[in-house]
């Protein structure tokens, strides 16, 4: 634990620094820290280490093969390219760091007794920092003061998680001037959603600290004039910096294969060098006398043949170094950058509604997109739009269908289709589209709804007309605020019942037990729960997000600690009544007020029957910029409803002032949908503070609930609760909403109901469950709404446990969870809601195409089973003819038995289908008959997943899933999602892709081989954790089927070509050793030898790897079956690697021995013999590349011709000036003489033809007699459009038959 000790600022000087500065780097430090680390990163690559070793080896005189400077050229060239690239990146990063480090903020100076300007890099742990509106927070700090009357600070966390909705943070209510306490908090970590710590005062009282008190670095202060905080984490130890780990690197599957093949090349090199060493020793031993070329050493002694062979082994390594392709890694990086550039500039990935396109965040795994075998997809926001629309609800067992709202949605869908057809033009002459104007659905839907709207009460019509006249859309910039989500048309029957609720009837309903009275109470509490059981931030139209330049930071007003102290006095920290609950006095030996003060510090307010929050607010000085003044209309007066009196302005009708112009900023679309649904019924959330929530309830007036606790939603509880003191009954009430899978188990039973309402509650529970099942079958997202009334004694007892959990550091999460579950029991069911989330455009077609491509798709969702299955059918993940197996069990043994039974059923059905097809006969059976197979799907829930993921059941579970065409995992937690992905990846050795849009998908995105984030409605957490980010799920189709196929085939062909050309060229030198006594000499100039692979033949394969296109994008989209070619690594099988090496050996033999036999017996010198070999090798390699190219463009032609011209220009130049370059060689005028010799041209032509003839003939025969699917698809481009359509249709029919047959084969049990 880190202890931050701060003594009184007036006296003490003791301060513990946790981190002094941020990235305070100068230019030299930047290159030293980042440049050297990148340099070392690339030196770690085996090839670079190998060449570094060769450079050092060539400096040893006994084994020297080249000039020392020449051997350094390859390594220097490669590292220079890398250094330039990384240097530019480092300099850009340095400038950004410098800009951030020198931002100015206000830090309190003990010496000057005031706030002074200080750079961010000088902000220390323990400093008091003052911030103003729209200022960026420079460090993680605990909030001590806010100018907001309720002690709230609104922050925007878009820079951290992408969410633009405002978050509330509350002060820990500590006076900075009198601060002499000890802060103890957890060690720095990257968990943005958790902060644990406490403040220990001098009297040993502890005050718990949580994330609600923490302002994170990088967030922006909004709608708050001034805040003061104390820094607890600074610099690199802030949560934002710990989360910023830089670009994440993954090793692609192809890269792992390339490293393996390079090891084979190393073994081949060692074998060739060993052959040279042995051959050199044998050759020397054959001489009876000392040969003239065997020069003795400085001591006059000769090396024995064995030692000479040992030296020659290292000389041969230097000579044949090109066999290890050092330039391959650099070429691969360049090719990947080119492929990423083409992907990012594909116009088909642009999504106009969000003005976004694809983001490639991982630059080194693009080829993995072509090998995906499993896709794990989230449902909400990934397959659906994540636009939650309120559709239905059930209250007290009575369902309300909201037919008018359904007609409104149909009207919206018609508008959306018109918008797409007219490219976002106006759909109609009377009103613009909903995209342009928020509330115009009423104008468009008026002809549809006029008749039905007359059935509504006249009072509601008047209210609607007033709202239309004065309301303007001000939430277009916020999430979950589109008109389709915010504009809800109430149900006629429910609206009529709602209009009968009055203050008197509501009070009577709590005492009476009649059915009508209970229904009145249920309806009122249901809508109150919708309005207040959330974390929605309310803001007025004048409080929109204001984004300003960073330069405005310097214009903050300066306030001293004395001024802050005066503000604290005006703020009156302790606003609570001094009359505590009796149970509190009994449970603690401390004074009641001190106990209440301790609770109030961390936001837990004990309510008093005499507390009048409304009068208290009115008595406070007005702040024109506070949220309440801009949210609550001036003509509405708050009254003391807690005192027991009926509000003087409460009425029993809907005839109230129009709904105020409020903006709701929610953390999830479900919350926003429910709040807007309550708002449609005139249950309007007016304001929210840490202490209270104000709701304008038609018939009851303005109700101010004292907010005691908020128990937020989490994936374990799957629910959230708010604890309030009800202003009408003055009782502590718990409102809870959550998944029906957990909520139904928390309801109180008949034995626990001590009134005559037990039978009514049981009927309500049964009817609500029936309605929930119906909602799930319709594909709606369901939520149960419940409440619980507590006595003061029960609440005080629970509060003691909560206080201990809040102030604990060890096992704090477990204690808080236990505390929440202790409260959320014996609930009374109020009703349930059904919210619709439409499928995204093109999802069914995308899933069908991906399935035809041989990719298995799993849906992992937290929704209940019926909803998940319904969406699976809608998106064609499951089909009506599929047999669905549901895996649901309560124990591990039962789960194993169920899976075994399902496997037997699949095998039995498969054998029956097989016998039927055999009786029909394969020869006479029609394609449709042959295609009849047995398809199955598996549905499993989260509780059963706990058993399935146990080690003993993993194998049988995977065997079962392999026999199913689709798997749907419902009610799964984020951890279970990631474990499933890891299980399939590790056990099946399959390439996996995970796609999601929310924070709950981050873990599975990071675990998968390839993670894809969808930039949707739930922030940018998934995008920031992903390798690729797209806007719509349908973009996954082209990303995989087209770009994935292209990236893989291009890169594999380029890698194989690199191996081919390096082995070919090295073998030329190796064959020559048989004619020079294995002396390690070369028949060509060393400059040309070193630069041949580095310059003359390096650019064409890069262009080949970036631009080659074996099949057009249209054909790949039409025929997803072609994806299996890259999925199965057909282009880069081990056999393809060895065949490439054998071809390289053959071409090197031809390239060497054709010139050898041509010039045999002549008197040409060594370089005159090597020049035609070198030139022929260049032509062979470049024309070999042309044979392998599937599409030759003008760029290919220019690069190949340019490489040939560059080679001739370079050799002519070096031949004319070789005496100044390399005095030891005699390449003078060699190329100039050959340019005038016809034999030279004949040798080059004959060598090239003989070497490439076998490969050319094989390619021709493959394309005509044994065409591959890719060759057939390439042929389709040459057909006319009509012929192409017929051929594609015939091909699809064949593929469907083959797929069904294969599915049957895989379903048959192995013998």
UniProtKB/TrEMBL annotation:
The keyword Transmembrane applies. Its EC number is 7.6.2.1. It catalyses: ATP + H2O + phospholipidSide 1 = ADP + phosphate + phospholipidSide 2; a beta-D-glucosyl-(1<->1')-N-acylsphing-4-enine(out) + ATP + H2O = a beta-D-glucosyl-(1<->1')-N-acylsphing-4-enine(in) + ADP + phosphate + H(+). ATP binds at residues 378-380, 671, 713, 737, 781, 861-863, 977, 1000-1001. It comes from the Eukaryota. The chain crosses the membrane at residues 39-60, 262-283, 311-332, 1054-1074, 1086-1107, 1135-1157, 1169-1187, 1193-1218, 1239-1258. The active site is at residue 378. Residues 614-625 have a biased composition (Basic and acidic residues). GO terms for molecular function: ATP binding; ATP hydrolysis activity; flippase activity; magnesium ion binding. One of its GO terms (biological process) is phospholipid translocation. Belongs to the cation transport ATPase (P-type) (TC 3.A.3) family. Type IV subfamily. This is Phospholipid-transporting ATPase. It comes from Taeniopygia guttata (Zebra finch). The lineage of its organism: Eukaryota, Metazoa, Chordata, Craniata, Vertebrata.
């Amino acid at each position: 634990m880190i202890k931050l000790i701060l003594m009184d600022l007036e006296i003490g000087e003791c301060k513990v620094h946790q981190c002094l500065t941020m990235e305070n780097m100068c230019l030299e430090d930047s290159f030293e820290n980042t440049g050297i680390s990148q340099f070392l990163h690339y030196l770690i690559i085996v090839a670079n280490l190998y060449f570094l070793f060769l450079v050092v080896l060539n400096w040893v005189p006994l084994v020297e093969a080249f000039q020392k400077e020449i051997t350094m050229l390859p390594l220097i060239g490669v590292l220079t390219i890398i250094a330039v690239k990384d240097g530019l990146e480092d300099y850009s990063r340095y400038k950004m760091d410098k800009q951030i480090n020198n931002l100015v903020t206000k830090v309190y100076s003990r010496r000057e007794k005031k706030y002074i300007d200080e750079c961010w890099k000088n902000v220390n742990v323990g400093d008091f920092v003052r911030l103003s509106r729209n200022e960026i927070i420079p460090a993680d700090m605990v909030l001590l003061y806010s100018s907001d009357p309720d002690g709230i600070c609104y922050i925007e966390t878009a820079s951290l998680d992408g969410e633009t909705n405002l978050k509330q943070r509350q002060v820990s209510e500590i006076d900075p001037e009198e601060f002499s306490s000890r802060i103890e908090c957890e060690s720095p970590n990257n968990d943005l959603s958790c902060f644990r710590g406490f403040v220990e005062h001098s009297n040993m009282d502890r005050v718990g600290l949580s994330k609600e008190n923490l302002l994170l670095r990088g967030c922006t202060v909004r709608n708050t004039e001034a805040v003061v905080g104390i820094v607890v984490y600074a610099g690199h130890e802030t949560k934002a910096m710990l989360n910023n780990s830089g670009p994440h690197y993954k090793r692609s599957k192809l890269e792992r294969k390339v490293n393996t093949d390079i090891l084979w090349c190393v073994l081949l090199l060692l074998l060739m060098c060993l052959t040279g060493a042995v051959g050199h020793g044998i050759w020397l031993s054959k001489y009876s006398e000392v040969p003239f070329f065997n020069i003795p050493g400085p001591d006059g002694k000769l090396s024995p043949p064995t030692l000479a062979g040992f030296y020659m082994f290292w000389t041969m390594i230097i000579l044949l170094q090109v066999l290890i392709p050092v330039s391959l890694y650099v070429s691969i990086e360049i090719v990947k950058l080119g492929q990423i550039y083409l992907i990012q500039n594909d116009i088909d990935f642009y999504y106009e509604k969000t003005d976004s396109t694809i983001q490639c965040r991982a630059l080194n795994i693009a080829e993995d997109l072509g090998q995906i075998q499993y896709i794990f997809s989230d449902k909400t926001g990934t397959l659906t739009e994540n636009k939650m629309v309120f559709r239905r609800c059930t209250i007290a067992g009575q369902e309300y269908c909201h037919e008018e709202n359904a007609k409104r949605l149909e009207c919206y869908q018609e508008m959306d289709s018109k918008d797409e057809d007219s490219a976002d033009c106006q759909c109609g002459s009377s009103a613009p589209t909903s995209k342009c104007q928020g509330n115009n659905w009423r104008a468009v839907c008026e002809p549809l709804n006029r008749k039905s709207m007359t059935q509504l009460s006249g009072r509601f019509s008047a209210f609607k007309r007033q709202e239309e006249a004065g309301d303007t859309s001000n939430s277009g910039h916020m999430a979950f605020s589109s008109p389709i989500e915010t504009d809800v048309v109430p149900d006629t029957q429910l609206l009529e019942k709602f209009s009968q609720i009055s203050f008197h009837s509501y009070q009577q309903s709590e005492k009476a037990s009649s059915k009508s009275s209970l229904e009145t109470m249920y309806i009122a509490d249901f809508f109150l729960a919708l309005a207040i059981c959330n974390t929605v931030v309310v803001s007025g139209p004048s409080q929109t997000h204001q984004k300003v330049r960073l330069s405005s930071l310097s214009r903050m007003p300066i306030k001293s600690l004395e001024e802050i102290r005066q503000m604290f006095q005006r703020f009156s920290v302790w606003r609570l009544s001094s009359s505590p609950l009796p149970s509190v006095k009994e449970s603690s030996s401390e004074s009641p007020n001190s106990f209440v003060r301790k609770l109030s510090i961390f936001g837990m307010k004990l309510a008093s029957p005499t507390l009048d929050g409304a009068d208290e607010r009115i008595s406070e000085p007005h702040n024109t910029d506070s949220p309440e003044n801009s949210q609550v209309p001036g003509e509405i007066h708050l009254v003391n409803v807690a005192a027991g009196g009926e509000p003087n302005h409460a009425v029993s009708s809907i005839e109230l002032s129009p709904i105020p112009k409020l903006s709701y900023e929610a953390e999830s679309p479900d919350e926003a949908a429910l709040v807007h649904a309550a708002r449609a019924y005139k249950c309007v959330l007016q304001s929210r503070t840490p202490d209270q929530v104000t709701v304008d309830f038609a018939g009851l007036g303005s109700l101010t609930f004292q907010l005691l606790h908020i128990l937020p939603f989490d994936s374990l509880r799957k629910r959230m609760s708010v604890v309030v003191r009800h202003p009408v009954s003055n009782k502590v009430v718990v409102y809870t909403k959550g998944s029906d899978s957990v909520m139904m188990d928390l309801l109180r039973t008949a034995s626990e109901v001590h009134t005559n309402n037990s039978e009514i509650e049981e009927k309500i529970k049964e009817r609500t469950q029936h309605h929930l099942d119906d909602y799930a079958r319709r594909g709606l997202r369901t939520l149960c709404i419940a409440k619980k009334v507590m006595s003061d004694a029960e609440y005080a007892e629970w509060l003691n446990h909560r206080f201990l959990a809040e102030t604990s550091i060890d096992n704090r999460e477990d204690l808080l969870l236990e505390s929440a579950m202790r409260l959320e029991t014996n609930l009374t069911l109020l009703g349930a809601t059904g919210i619709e989330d439409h499928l995204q455009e093109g999802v069914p077609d995308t899933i069908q195409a991906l399935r035809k491509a041989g990719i298995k798709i799993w849906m992992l969702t937290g929704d209940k089973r019926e909803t998940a299955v319904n969406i699976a059918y809608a998106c064609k993940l499951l089909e009506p003819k599929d047999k669905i197996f549901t895996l649901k069990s309560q124990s591990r043994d039962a789960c194993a038995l169920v899976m075994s039974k399902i496997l037997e059923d699949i095998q039995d059905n498969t054998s029956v289908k097989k016998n039927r097809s055999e009786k029909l006969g394969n020869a006479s059976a029609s394609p449709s008959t042959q295609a009849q197979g047995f398809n199955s799907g598996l549905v499993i829930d989260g509780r059963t997943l706990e058993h399935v993921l146990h080690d003993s059941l993993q194998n049988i579970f995977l065997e079962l899933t392999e026999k199913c065409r689709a798997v749907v995992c419902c009610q799964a937690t984020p951890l279970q999602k990631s474990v499933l992905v890891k299980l399939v990846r590790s056990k099946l050795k399959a390439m996996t892709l995970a796609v999601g849009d929310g924070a709950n998908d981050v873990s599975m995105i990071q675990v998968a081989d390839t993670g894809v984030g969808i930039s949707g409605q739930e922030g940018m957490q998934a995008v920031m954790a992903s390798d690729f980010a797209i806007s719509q799920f349908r973009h996954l189709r082209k990303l995989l089927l087209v770009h994935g196929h292209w990236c893989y085939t291009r890169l594999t062909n380029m890698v194989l070509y690199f191996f081919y050309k390096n082995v070919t060229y090295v073998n030329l030198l190796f064959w020559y050793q048989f004619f020079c006594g294995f002396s390690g000499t070369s028949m060509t100039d060393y400059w040309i030898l070193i630069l041949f692979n580095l310059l003359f033949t390096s650019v064409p394969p890069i262009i080949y790897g970036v631009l080659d296109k074996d099949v057009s994008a249209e054909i790949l989209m039409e025929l997803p079956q072609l994806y299996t070619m890259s999925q199965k690594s057909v282009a880069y099988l081990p056999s393809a690697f060895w065949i490439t090496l054998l071809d390289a050996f053959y071409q090197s033999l031809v390239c060497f021995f054709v010139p050898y036999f041509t010039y045999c017996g002549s008197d040409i010198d060594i370089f005159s013999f090597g020049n035609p070999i070198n030139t022929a090798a260049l032509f062979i390699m470049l024309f070999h590349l042309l044979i392998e190219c599937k599409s030759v463009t003008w760029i290919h032609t220019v690069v190949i011709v340019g490489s040939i011209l560059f080679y001739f220009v370079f050799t002519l130049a070096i031949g004319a000036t070789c005496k100044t370059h390399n005095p030891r060689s005699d390449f003078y005028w060699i190329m100039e003489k050959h340019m005038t010799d016809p034999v030279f041209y004949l040798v080059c032509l004959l060598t090239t033809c003989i070497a490439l003839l076998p490969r050319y003939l094989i390619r021709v025969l493959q394309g005509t007699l044994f065409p591959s699917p890719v060759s057939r698809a390439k042929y389709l481009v040459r057909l006319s459009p009509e012929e192409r359509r017929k051929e594609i249709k015939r091909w699809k029919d064949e593929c469907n038959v083959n797929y069904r047959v294969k599915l049957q084969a895989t379903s048959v049990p192995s013998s």
